[in-house]
Specification:
Layout lengths: L11 H17 L2 H28 L5 E7 L2 E6 L2 E14 L15 E11 L1 H6 L8 H12 L1 H12 L4
Helix pairs in contact: 1-2, 2-5, 4-5
Length: about 160
């Protein structure tokens, strides 16, 4: 059986996240790749949604505010200190698209990309002599590898707002 045309519609968030891979799947009429990609994306997206909800629930009755900025980003701040904000981002991104065709393991072309970024005032930056605030994301990535996304985010948040 040969498929000469493949067309499909997916939700907006999936298009936003991995449109380049979806277009390659369409162009190649790779129906098996589409279903493998769909299952893989759904698993990553589900994990992202669960983690974001879990973080909001964890900090619900604390002095930490957690607000949705998008389906992939949270803003974390302390109610008594508006000088430091932590932006937690969990994107799902395409990768390894430099080849002419996608390989059979099309799910390898879609990966999670997690980061935290500290937004702060110039005053706070000047006080940060050790430049620790600039290295928060590096610490976060190491913590993910050792303890998972949820625990790494909680750890970084608590350390940032000195809640240990």
């Amino acid at each position: 059986m040969v498929i000469s045309k493949l067309d499909f519609d997916v939700d907006f968030q999936m298009q936003l996240d991995i449109d380049d891979v979806l277009n390659r799947v369409k162009k190649e009429c790779n129906i098996m790749g589409f279903f493998r990609l769909l299952v893989h994306y759904a698993a990553i997206n589900h994990q992202r949604q669960i983690t974001l909800k879990k973080l909001k629930a964890y900090f619900q009755d604390t002095p930490i505010d957690v607000n949705d900025l998008s389906a992939a980003q949270l803003e974390i701040s302390h109610v008594l200190d508006d000088k430091i904000k932590l932006l937690f981002t969990w994107q799902i991104i395409p990768c390894n698209l430099q080849f002419e065709y996608l390989d059979a393991n099309v799910e390898n072309h879609v990966v999670p990309d997690l980061s935290v970024e500290v937004e702060t005032t110039d005053e706070v930056k000047k006080k940060d002599e050790s430049r620790l605030l600039e290295r928060v994301n590096d610490i976060f990535v190491l913590m993910i590898e050792q303890h998972g996304v949820f625990n790494a985010t909680v750890f970084v948040t608590k350390k940032l707002y000195d809640m240990q």
